[in-house]
Amino acid sequence: MAASYQAEQLKERGNIHFKQGEFEDAVSLYSQAIQKNSGNPLLYTNRGKARMQLRQWQEAIDDALRSIDIQGQNMKAYFLLAQAQLELNHPNEALSSALTAYQTCVSTPAQTNNAFTIAGVVLKCKKAKWELRQKHRLHRRNELLREFEEKIELDTKKELDDIEVQASSGQMGKVEAEEERAYHKETAHKKVQELRSIFAIADPKGMEKREVPEYLVDAISFEIMHDPVITKHGHTYERATIVEALKRNPTDPLTRDPLTPNDLRPNHALKKACDEFWEQNSGWAYDW
Question: What is the tens place of the pLDDT at every residue in 6-15?
Fold first, then answer.
């Protein structure tokens, strides 16, 4: 009992440091709390979130997995795991973790207020997975493009590594380091897009841009919609997925507001957009 109390006190002190942006101190205190009570899953997710702020992605993954080992279907841990996996460029694993967090969230009424945030990460993971597939497709199509993109990636990695060295040695402040990271990532992204545009001129069919607008994606299945319907609260879903969800629970999956099939209305404007998208992109859209 004394150890649990001491762990709770250390956690609270860690939370204070976290809120103040003192993440190294927070990690230290959470670690001390874990030594006192290693069976508390929240201590690992708290430390993992602090480690995310320190860009310690693998350590955050380790904390998330330990929390899951203790608690099982742990929404916070899976959400943390997805974000860290995405930072390490593992979109397939990140998507699986994010979907688990989302399903746990929407099936637990007390956690529904996190649904929109988690859904945003799910979509981000799915887009990252799609982008990786597209990159591989284009590289198989054009070896020269692959060489150019790999050169951009290597140059960007070197720039980011240099920033980490300067930040860890105190030569660069946290805000400046974050701004520099964002600048080099955005610059690299623009270079890749410009490069692909140039290659598309020579091979327009093989280099066609394949993107799915977010507004066409269902908020339950995260698939491209065919028959969108809108609720009385203004949320849009694919008809089949929301009707199926309402069979299990007559509430809006994201808000928990009472909802029945009779409250659903066709979203005619979005249906038109969906039809046009499928007509123009049916050759590859089913792979999304």
Answer: 999 999 999 9
Residue 224 phi, psi (nearest 5): -70, 130
Instruction: Please give the angle made by the CA atoms of 87, 93 and 94, to the nearest 5 degrees.
Output: 45
**Residue ranges in the chain assigned as alpha helix (H):** 2-19, 23-36, 41-53, 57-71, 75-87, 91-106, 115-141, 143-168, 174-202, 239-248, 268-285
Q: Strand order of the sheet with strand 265-266?
A: 236-238, 228-230, 265-266
* Distance linking the first and last C-alpha atoms of the chain: 51
3-class secondary structure per residue, 51-90:
HHHCCCHHHHHHHHHHHHHHHCCCHHHHHHHHHHHHHCCC
Q: Which tens digit of pLDDT belongs to each residue from 83-133?
A: 999 999 999 999 999 999 999 988 877 777 788 899 999 999 999 999 999
DSSP per-residue letters across 205-246: TTT------GGGB-TTT-SBPSSEEE-TTS-EEEHHHHHHHH
Six-digit token string for 55? 């860009």
pLDDT tens-digit profile of 193-216?
999 999 988 888 778 878 899 999
In a domain, 238, yes or no: yes
The predicted model scores a pTM of 0.83
CATH of residue 15? 1.25.40.10
Q: Tell me which residue of 240, 287, 234 sits closest to 263, measured CA to CA.
A: 234
Query: How sure is the predictor about 233, in pLDDT bands with cuts at 50, 70 and 90?
Result: confident
The answer to the question of residue 134 being in a domain is: no
Instruction: Report, as an integer, the average pLDDT of 151-168.
Output: 93
CB 260 within 8 A of CB 233: no
Write out the residue range of the structural domain in which residue 262 sits.
214-285
The answer to whether 123 and 130 have CB atoms below 8 angstroms apart is no
